[in-house]
Amino acid sequence: MTSQRIHFTKMHGAGNDFIVIDNRKNLTDPDFFAKQIPLLCHRRYGIGADGVLLLEAETGASYRMVYKNADGSDAGMCGNGGRCIALFATTLGFSCGHTFTVGNSVYRAVVESHTVALHFPVESIVRSVDWPTDQKIYQVHTGTEHIVLEAGSDLLESDAELVIRGQKLRHARAFSPAGTNVNFMTIKGDKRIRLRTYERGVENLTLACGTGSIASALTAHSLSGGSPDQAQYTVECDGGELEIGFNYDRESRIYSQITLKGPAKIVFEGFIDI
User: Fold this and answer.
1) Which residue of 41, 106, 132, 180 has the lowest C-beta tally within 10 Å?
2) Residue in 78, 84, 96, 237 annotated catalytic
3) Mean pLDDT taken over the chain
């Protein structure tokens, strides 16, 4: 296959960075393109990113978002990616309030300058994982797979140790075959969390994780006894702060009306031959 020149936009949401492409005209063969993603995301030999976002035509919403991890694998929903693609969509003429699909789910985005809020259609439950050590692990699905662990401040500052533990848990048999993203959080009080995430598909720590921030906020709320029924948490990530809002039903233990709000920015744009 001959090389093809593709226009891209580099973006980040709280440091979680992406290559964003307008693919409404199906610019390239999907299988061929998927094989190029690891090179595109390589930080020395490519553009460099945590993943690739494709904006594609959709009949049931403004557009469809397709997200691929840096290793080319499917990722499901990406919260910070969703916020970035929403800002990107406004540069293509979409309104500041619009909807997009990921799989069979429809998300609503509200763009205000360089701040984007996403409204999630998912309902989530915080489940305790039966684990053979004293470490308590909580599993939360927020459009993609996550586990959450409490961690001391010393551990949060040790990149090497977080990567070792993240790799081990990400591949643990209990979470196979899909694997999981791994979130290490410190609850700081007053609905504020410090968070670091080891992301599946990136296979490393990232500067922020939107769906991981949601999973951690829901877990912190659950550990506090599930009060109040409506809450908002601030999650401190390496790349910036994210705001998480939700409702909680005590009887069913279901979290709903989940929102994710934070910064999104266009860094640069260009062309690349693949």
Assistant:
1) 132
2) 78
3) 95
